[in-house]
Design goal:
InterPro entries: FAD-bd (IPR002938), FAD/NAD-bd_sf (IPR036188), FAD_aromatic-hydroxylase (IPR051704)
Number of helices: 14
Distance between the termini: 6 Å
Helix content: 25-40%
Protein name: FAD/NAD(P)-binding domain-containing protein
Organism: Gymnopus androsaceus JB14
Largest sheet: 7 strands, mixed
Biased composition (Basic and acidic residues): 409-419
Region (Disordered): 396-419
Protein backbone atom coordinates (compact mmCIF):
# COMPACT_ATOMS: atom_id res chain seq x y z
CA UNK A 1 0.00 0.00 0.00
CA UNK A 2 1.37 3.39 -1.01
CA UNK A 3 0.48 6.15 1.45
CA UNK A 4 1.11 9.88 1.06
CA UNK A 5 1.28 11.99 4.23
CA UNK A 6 1.19 15.78 4.12
CA UNK A 7 3.10 17.20 7.09
CA UNK A 8 6.27 16.17 8.95
CA UNK A 9 5.26 17.49 12.36
CA UNK A 10 4.07 15.12 15.09
CA UNK A 11 1.11 13.17 13.68
CA UNK A 12 2.62 12.42 10.24
CA UNK A 13 5.90 10.77 11.33
CA UNK A 14 4.12 8.86 14.14
CA UNK A 15 1.70 7.46 11.58
CA UNK A 16 4.59 6.63 9.23
CA UNK A 17 6.38 4.73 12.00
CA UNK A 18 3.48 2.36 12.61
CA UNK A 19 2.37 2.03 8.98
CA UNK A 20 5.93 1.10 8.02
CA UNK A 21 5.92 -1.64 10.67
CA UNK A 22 2.78 -3.01 9.00
CA UNK A 23 4.49 -3.03 5.61
CA UNK A 24 3.08 0.06 3.91
CA UNK A 25 5.21 2.31 1.67
CA UNK A 26 5.05 5.91 2.90
CA UNK A 27 5.98 9.23 1.35
CA UNK A 28 5.91 12.31 3.61
CA UNK A 29 5.86 15.75 2.00
CA UNK A 30 6.74 18.83 4.06
CA UNK A 31 6.55 22.41 2.83
CA UNK A 32 9.55 23.53 4.90
CA UNK A 33 12.98 22.82 3.48
CA UNK A 34 14.06 21.37 6.82
CA UNK A 35 12.50 20.58 10.18
CA UNK A 36 11.51 23.76 12.00
CA UNK A 37 13.81 24.55 14.91
CA UNK A 38 12.69 23.95 18.46
CA UNK A 39 9.22 25.64 18.50
CA UNK A 40 7.21 26.07 21.68
CA UNK A 41 6.36 23.87 24.65
CA UNK A 42 4.16 20.83 24.25
CA UNK A 43 3.65 17.90 26.56
CA UNK A 44 2.81 14.22 26.30
CA UNK A 45 0.36 12.58 28.67
CA UNK A 46 -1.95 9.65 29.24
CA UNK A 47 -2.11 7.02 26.50
CA UNK A 48 0.29 8.99 24.30
CA UNK A 49 3.06 8.01 26.71
CA UNK A 50 2.21 4.36 26.13
CA UNK A 51 2.43 4.91 22.36
CA UNK A 52 5.82 6.61 22.66
CA UNK A 53 7.01 3.68 24.77
CA UNK A 54 5.86 1.28 22.04
CA UNK A 55 8.09 3.28 19.69
CA UNK A 56 11.04 2.95 22.05
CA UNK A 57 11.50 6.72 22.23
CA UNK A 58 11.01 7.57 25.90
CA UNK A 59 14.75 7.97 26.57
CA UNK A 60 15.01 10.55 23.77
CA UNK A 61 11.93 12.40 25.02
CA UNK A 62 13.41 12.60 28.49
CA UNK A 63 16.76 13.73 27.09
CA UNK A 64 15.11 16.71 25.40
CA UNK A 65 13.05 17.69 28.45
CA UNK A 66 12.76 21.48 28.72
CA UNK A 67 14.20 21.35 32.27
CA UNK A 68 11.12 23.12 33.63
CA UNK A 69 10.82 22.51 37.38
CA UNK A 70 7.19 23.50 37.61
CA UNK A 71 4.78 26.43 37.34
CA UNK A 72 4.72 29.50 39.54
CA UNK A 73 2.73 32.72 39.42
CA UNK A 74 4.18 36.22 39.61
CA UNK A 75 2.51 38.96 41.66
CA UNK A 76 2.14 42.63 40.56
CA UNK A 77 5.48 43.47 42.21
CA UNK A 78 7.30 40.80 40.23
CA UNK A 79 7.59 38.33 43.09
CA UNK A 80 6.94 34.62 42.52
CA UNK A 81 4.30 32.89 44.59
CA UNK A 82 2.05 29.82 44.42
CA UNK A 83 4.62 27.25 43.20
CA UNK A 84 3.26 24.08 41.59
CA UNK A 85 6.34 21.85 41.15
CA UNK A 86 6.53 18.90 38.78
CA UNK A 87 6.15 15.56 40.52
CA UNK A 88 6.75 12.18 38.95
CA UNK A 89 3.53 10.46 37.79
CA UNK A 90 1.48 13.38 39.08
CA UNK A 91 -0.95 15.82 37.45
CA UNK A 92 -0.84 18.54 40.11
CA UNK A 93 1.29 21.01 38.11
CA UNK A 94 0.55 22.90 34.89
CA UNK A 95 4.01 21.70 33.85
CA UNK A 96 4.14 18.15 32.51
CA UNK A 97 6.72 15.58 33.56
CA UNK A 98 7.22 15.09 29.81
CA UNK A 99 7.56 18.73 28.75
CA UNK A 100 9.35 19.11 25.41
CA UNK A 101 9.63 21.63 22.57
CA UNK A 102 7.56 20.81 19.51
CA UNK A 103 10.54 20.95 17.19
CA UNK A 104 12.59 18.67 19.41
CA UNK A 105 9.83 16.05 19.39
CA UNK A 106 9.50 16.39 15.61
CA UNK A 107 13.25 15.70 15.27
CA UNK A 108 12.97 12.62 17.48
CA UNK A 109 10.13 11.25 15.34
CA UNK A 110 11.96 12.09 12.12
CA UNK A 111 15.13 10.33 13.28
CA UNK A 112 13.05 7.27 14.22
CA UNK A 113 11.58 6.99 10.71
CA UNK A 114 13.94 8.56 8.16
CA UNK A 115 16.11 5.51 7.63
CA UNK A 116 13.29 2.98 7.38
CA UNK A 117 13.31 1.46 3.86
CA UNK A 118 9.55 2.01 3.59
CA UNK A 119 9.63 5.74 4.45
CA UNK A 120 10.66 8.64 2.19
CA UNK A 121 10.70 12.33 3.16
CA UNK A 122 10.35 15.07 0.54
CA UNK A 123 11.17 18.46 2.10
CA UNK A 124 10.33 21.68 0.31
CA UNK A 125 7.44 19.87 -1.33
CA UNK A 126 3.67 20.29 -1.04
CA UNK A 127 0.53 18.84 -2.54
CA UNK A 128 -0.38 21.35 -5.22
CA UNK A 129 -3.61 19.63 -6.23
CA UNK A 130 -5.67 16.59 -5.35
CA UNK A 131 -6.51 15.59 -8.92
CA UNK A 132 -8.94 12.77 -8.09
CA UNK A 133 -10.14 10.74 -5.13
CA UNK A 134 -12.17 7.67 -6.09
CA UNK A 135 -12.61 3.94 -5.53
CA UNK A 136 -9.36 3.08 -7.28
CA UNK A 137 -6.77 5.64 -6.12
CA UNK A 138 -6.17 9.16 -4.91
CA UNK A 139 -4.19 11.04 -7.55
CA UNK A 140 -2.14 14.09 -6.53
CA UNK A 141 0.01 16.66 -8.25
CA UNK A 142 3.03 17.67 -6.18
CA UNK A 143 4.69 21.08 -6.19
CA UNK A 144 7.69 19.53 -7.97
CA UNK A 145 5.43 18.76 -10.94
CA UNK A 146 5.08 15.03 -10.37
CA UNK A 147 1.63 13.39 -10.60
CA UNK A 148 1.35 10.20 -8.57
CA UNK A 149 -1.28 7.69 -7.46
CA UNK A 150 -1.60 6.53 -3.87
CA UNK A 151 -3.89 4.19 -1.97
CA UNK A 152 -4.32 6.78 0.81
CA UNK A 153 -3.71 10.48 1.37
CA UNK A 154 -3.35 11.69 4.98
CA UNK A 155 -3.77 15.38 5.81
CA UNK A 156 -1.46 15.88 8.79
CA UNK A 157 -0.66 19.45 7.79
CA UNK A 158 -2.08 21.26 10.78
CA UNK A 159 -5.05 23.29 11.91
CA UNK A 160 -5.40 25.18 8.62
CA UNK A 161 -4.75 22.14 6.42
CA UNK A 162 -4.60 22.90 2.70
CA UNK A 163 -5.33 19.28 1.87
CA UNK A 164 -8.49 19.40 3.98
CA UNK A 165 -9.57 22.56 2.18
CA UNK A 166 -9.35 20.76 -1.17
CA UNK A 167 -11.11 17.55 -0.12
CA UNK A 168 -13.79 18.57 2.38
CA UNK A 169 -16.71 20.94 1.97
CA UNK A 170 -16.61 24.15 4.05
CA UNK A 171 -19.86 23.24 5.79
CA UNK A 172 -18.17 20.11 7.19
CA UNK A 173 -15.60 22.20 9.07
CA UNK A 174 -16.49 24.06 12.27
CA UNK A 175 -14.12 26.61 13.75
CA UNK A 176 -14.82 27.30 17.43
CA UNK A 177 -13.29 30.60 18.49
CA UNK A 178 -12.17 30.88 22.12
CA UNK A 179 -11.93 34.68 22.08
CA UNK A 180 -8.21 34.57 22.84
CA UNK A 181 -5.01 35.36 20.93
CA UNK A 182 -1.46 34.21 21.61
CA UNK A 183 2.04 35.19 20.49
CA UNK A 184 5.01 32.90 21.11
CA UNK A 185 8.69 33.50 20.47
CA UNK A 186 12.23 32.67 21.58
CA UNK A 187 14.17 35.15 23.71
CA UNK A 188 17.76 35.33 25.05
CA UNK A 189 18.07 33.81 28.48
CA UNK A 190 19.36 36.07 31.26
CA UNK A 191 21.38 34.95 34.29
CA UNK A 192 18.44 36.03 36.46
CA UNK A 193 15.99 33.69 34.68
CA UNK A 194 15.00 30.52 36.52
CA UNK A 195 13.83 27.07 35.47
CA UNK A 196 10.14 27.62 36.24
CA UNK A 197 7.21 28.48 34.04
CA UNK A 198 6.65 32.01 35.33
CA UNK A 199 3.11 33.32 34.76
CA UNK A 200 2.15 36.95 35.28
CA UNK A 201 -1.48 38.07 35.02
CA UNK A 202 -1.57 41.67 33.85
CA UNK A 203 -4.84 43.56 34.08
CA UNK A 204 -7.15 44.12 31.11
CA UNK A 205 -7.20 40.42 30.19
CA UNK A 206 -3.48 39.96 29.45
CA UNK A 207 -1.00 37.25 30.41
CA UNK A 208 2.80 37.22 30.14
CA UNK A 209 4.85 34.08 30.67
CA UNK A 210 8.51 33.04 30.45
CA UNK A 211 9.65 29.44 30.55
CA UNK A 212 12.99 27.65 30.15
CA UNK A 213 14.20 25.44 27.32
CA UNK A 214 17.16 23.01 27.02
CA UNK A 215 18.99 25.09 24.39
CA UNK A 216 20.27 28.04 26.43
CA UNK A 217 17.41 30.36 25.49
CA UNK A 218 13.90 30.91 26.90
CA UNK A 219 10.35 30.98 25.56
CA UNK A 220 8.04 33.98 25.83
CA UNK A 221 4.27 33.98 25.57
CA UNK A 222 1.75 36.83 25.47
CA UNK A 223 -1.97 36.07 25.50
CA UNK A 224 -4.87 38.49 25.22
CA UNK A 225 -8.65 38.33 25.35
CA UNK A 226 -9.84 41.53 23.65
CA UNK A 227 -12.16 43.53 25.91
CA UNK A 228 -14.12 45.55 23.34
CA UNK A 229 -15.06 45.58 19.67
CA UNK A 230 -12.13 47.78 18.63
CA UNK A 231 -9.64 45.43 20.28
CA UNK A 232 -11.36 42.39 18.77
CA UNK A 233 -11.07 43.91 15.31
CA UNK A 234 -7.40 44.83 15.81
CA UNK A 235 -6.39 41.36 17.03
CA UNK A 236 -8.35 39.58 14.34
CA UNK A 237 -6.79 41.69 11.62
CA UNK A 238 -3.31 41.19 13.07
CA UNK A 239 -3.75 37.40 13.12
CA UNK A 240 -4.30 37.56 9.36
CA UNK A 241 -1.62 40.14 8.67
CA UNK A 242 2.15 40.38 8.36
CA UNK A 243 4.77 40.07 11.09
CA UNK A 244 5.38 43.83 11.42
CA UNK A 245 1.68 44.52 12.01
CA UNK A 246 1.65 41.86 14.72
CA UNK A 247 4.73 43.30 16.41
CA UNK A 248 3.25 46.80 16.40
CA UNK A 249 0.03 45.51 17.99
CA UNK A 250 1.91 43.62 20.70
CA UNK A 251 3.96 46.70 21.54
CA UNK A 252 0.92 48.92 21.65
CA UNK A 253 -1.17 46.58 23.79
CA UNK A 254 1.50 45.28 26.21
CA UNK A 255 3.66 48.38 26.77
CA UNK A 256 1.99 49.09 30.12
CA UNK A 257 1.42 45.48 31.20
CA UNK A 258 4.13 45.45 33.87
CA UNK A 259 6.61 42.83 35.10
CA UNK A 260 9.02 41.96 32.23
CA UNK A 261 6.80 43.13 29.38
CA UNK A 262 9.29 45.68 28.08
CA UNK A 263 12.18 43.20 28.10
CA UNK A 264 10.15 40.80 25.94
CA UNK A 265 8.87 43.51 23.61
CA UNK A 266 12.45 44.65 22.99
CA UNK A 267 13.32 41.21 21.54
CA UNK A 268 10.55 41.08 18.93
CA UNK A 269 12.51 42.61 16.04
CA UNK A 270 15.31 40.06 16.33
CA UNK A 271 13.47 36.85 17.19
CA UNK A 272 13.53 34.27 14.39
CA UNK A 273 10.30 32.51 15.28
CA UNK A 274 7.41 34.82 16.26
CA UNK A 275 4.20 32.79 16.02
CA UNK A 276 0.91 34.69 16.32
CA UNK A 277 -2.43 32.89 16.41
CA UNK A 278 -6.10 33.08 17.27
CA UNK A 279 -6.96 30.27 19.70
CA UNK A 280 -9.56 28.21 17.87
CA UNK A 281 -10.75 24.62 17.78
CA UNK A 282 -11.29 22.60 14.62
CA UNK A 283 -14.22 20.21 14.55
CA UNK A 284 -14.69 18.16 11.40
CA UNK A 285 -18.06 16.45 10.88
CA UNK A 286 -16.39 13.50 9.11
CA UNK A 287 -12.67 12.82 9.30
CA UNK A 288 -12.40 11.02 5.96
CA UNK A 289 -13.61 11.25 2.39
CA UNK A 290 -13.05 8.09 0.32
CA UNK A 291 -9.22 7.75 0.25
CA UNK A 292 -8.40 11.02 2.07
CA UNK A 293 -8.29 11.24 5.87
CA UNK A 294 -7.47 14.04 8.32
CA UNK A 295 -5.24 13.41 11.33
CA UNK A 296 -4.21 15.49 14.34
CA UNK A 297 -4.95 19.22 14.27
CA UNK A 298 -6.27 18.94 10.70
CA UNK A 299 -9.18 16.90 12.05
CA UNK A 300 -9.53 17.91 15.69
CA UNK A 301 -7.31 20.75 16.90
CA UNK A 302 -8.31 21.05 20.58
CA UNK A 303 -6.42 24.36 21.27
CA UNK A 304 -3.48 24.79 23.67
CA UNK A 305 -6.05 25.36 26.43
CA UNK A 306 -6.53 21.60 26.71
CA UNK A 307 -2.82 20.77 26.74
CA UNK A 308 -3.77 17.70 24.70
CA UNK A 309 -3.07 18.52 21.05
CA UNK A 310 0.18 16.56 20.90
CA UNK A 311 -1.25 13.57 22.73
CA UNK A 312 -4.28 13.45 20.44
CA UNK A 313 -1.99 13.56 17.39
CA UNK A 314 0.13 10.67 18.69
CA UNK A 315 -2.76 8.47 19.81
CA UNK A 316 -4.77 9.22 16.66
CA UNK A 317 -1.81 8.24 14.46
CA UNK A 318 -1.47 4.95 16.34
CA UNK A 319 -5.17 4.11 15.99
CA UNK A 320 -5.31 5.10 12.31
CA UNK A 321 -2.25 2.99 11.49
CA UNK A 322 -3.65 0.12 13.52
CA UNK A 323 -6.98 0.09 11.72
CA UNK A 324 -5.16 0.28 8.37
CA UNK A 325 -3.03 -2.70 9.40
CA UNK A 326 -6.18 -4.83 9.78
CA UNK A 327 -7.21 -4.46 6.13
CA UNK A 328 -7.20 -7.59 3.99
CA UNK A 329 -5.78 -7.57 0.47
CA UNK A 330 -7.99 -5.54 -1.85
CA UNK A 331 -10.11 -3.93 0.87
CA UNK A 332 -10.85 -0.22 0.41
CA UNK A 333 -9.12 2.02 2.99
CA UNK A 334 -12.46 3.64 3.86
CA UNK A 335 -13.24 0.61 6.03
CA UNK A 336 -10.22 1.37 8.21
CA UNK A 337 -10.83 5.12 8.15
CA UNK A 338 -14.34 4.70 9.49
CA UNK A 339 -13.13 2.30 12.17
CA UNK A 340 -10.46 4.85 13.22
CA UNK A 341 -13.06 7.58 13.56
CA UNK A 342 -15.56 5.35 15.33
CA UNK A 343 -12.96 4.28 17.90
CA UNK A 344 -11.31 7.64 18.51
CA UNK A 345 -13.93 10.37 17.99
CA UNK A 346 -15.74 9.94 21.36
CA UNK A 347 -12.47 10.49 23.22
CA UNK A 348 -11.56 13.51 21.06
CA UNK A 349 -14.95 15.10 21.69
CA UNK A 350 -14.50 14.73 25.44
CA UNK A 351 -11.07 16.36 25.28
CA UNK A 352 -12.45 19.25 23.23
CA UNK A 353 -15.01 20.12 25.91
CA UNK A 354 -13.64 23.24 27.57
CA UNK A 355 -15.46 24.73 30.62
CA UNK A 356 -17.38 27.91 29.81
CA UNK A 357 -15.23 30.00 32.18
CA UNK A 358 -11.98 29.08 30.35
CA UNK A 359 -9.90 31.01 29.30
CA UNK A 360 -11.63 34.09 30.78
CA UNK A 361 -10.95 33.07 34.39
CA UNK A 362 -7.19 33.40 33.81
CA UNK A 363 -7.54 36.74 32.00
CA UNK A 364 -8.93 39.10 34.66
CA UNK A 365 -9.84 42.59 33.53
CA UNK A 366 -9.83 44.14 37.00
CA UNK A 367 -7.59 44.06 40.06
CA UNK A 368 -10.16 42.37 42.28
CA UNK A 369 -10.71 39.54 39.79
CA UNK A 370 -6.96 39.05 39.62
CA UNK A 371 -6.84 38.93 43.42
CA UNK A 372 -9.51 36.22 43.43
CA UNK A 373 -7.58 34.13 40.93
CA UNK A 374 -4.31 34.64 42.79
CA UNK A 375 -6.00 33.56 46.02
CA UNK A 376 -7.24 30.40 44.32
CA UNK A 377 -3.85 29.38 42.91
CA UNK A 378 -2.13 30.25 46.21
CA UNK A 379 -4.55 27.90 48.02
CA UNK A 380 -3.97 25.27 45.34
CA UNK A 381 -0.21 25.48 45.88
CA UNK A 382 -0.75 24.84 49.60
CA UNK A 383 -2.87 21.78 48.84
CA UNK A 384 -0.25 20.48 46.42
CA UNK A 385 2.37 20.82 49.15
CA UNK A 386 0.27 18.67 51.51
CA UNK A 387 0.72 14.96 50.59
CA UNK A 388 -2.44 13.59 52.20
CA UNK A 389 -4.59 16.24 50.51
CA UNK A 390 -2.99 15.66 47.11
CA UNK A 391 -3.84 11.96 47.24
CA UNK A 392 -7.53 12.80 47.35
CA UNK A 393 -7.64 14.34 43.86
CA UNK A 394 -4.37 13.62 42.08
CA UNK A 395 -4.13 11.10 39.24
CA UNK A 396 -1.18 9.36 37.64
CA UNK A 397 -0.27 11.42 34.57
CA UNK A 398 0.95 8.25 32.83
CA UNK A 399 -2.29 6.32 33.23
CA UNK A 400 -4.00 5.49 29.95
CA UNK A 401 -6.90 7.90 29.40
CA UNK A 402 -7.81 6.22 26.10
CA UNK A 403 -7.74 2.40 26.11
CA UNK A 404 -5.20 1.57 23.40
CA UNK A 405 -6.30 -1.20 21.03
CA UNK A 406 -3.73 -3.89 20.30
CA UNK A 407 -2.77 -4.42 16.66
CA UNK A 408 -0.91 -7.70 15.92
CA UNK A 409 0.64 -6.40 12.69
CA UNK A 410 2.78 -3.95 14.67
CA UNK A 411 4.46 -6.92 16.31
CA UNK A 412 4.90 -8.99 13.17
CA UNK A 413 7.47 -6.75 11.51
CA UNK A 414 7.48 -6.15 7.82
CA UNK A 415 4.68 -8.07 6.16
CA UNK A 416 3.32 -6.16 3.16
CA UNK A 417 -0.24 -4.88 2.87
CA UNK A 418 -1.79 -4.09 -0.47
CA UNK A 419 -4.87 -2.33 -1.67
Amino acid sequence: MRVLISGAGIAGPTLAYFLAKAGASITIVEKSHSLLSHGQNIDIGGSAIAVVKKMGLMDQVRRFNTTEKGTQFIDPKGRPFAPLPVKENSSVSFTSEFEILRGDLAVILYEATKDHPNVEYLFGTTIKEVVSNDDDTVKVKLSNGEVQDFALLVAADGQWSKVRKQCFLPEHISVVDMGMYAAYWTIPRLPSDNDWWNIYLALESRIITIRPDPHGTARALFTRMPCNDAQKKAWLEASRSDRQTQIELLRREFADAGWQAQRLLDTLDETPDLYFQAIQQIRLSEWSNSRVVCLGDAAYAPTPLTGAGTSLAIIGAYVLAGEMSKLEDGEHPSKALKAYESAFRPFVEEVQKIPFFVPAIAHPQSAWKRWLFHTFVWALSKVVATPWLVKKFDRNSSDEDFPLPQYPRFDEGSKTTTS
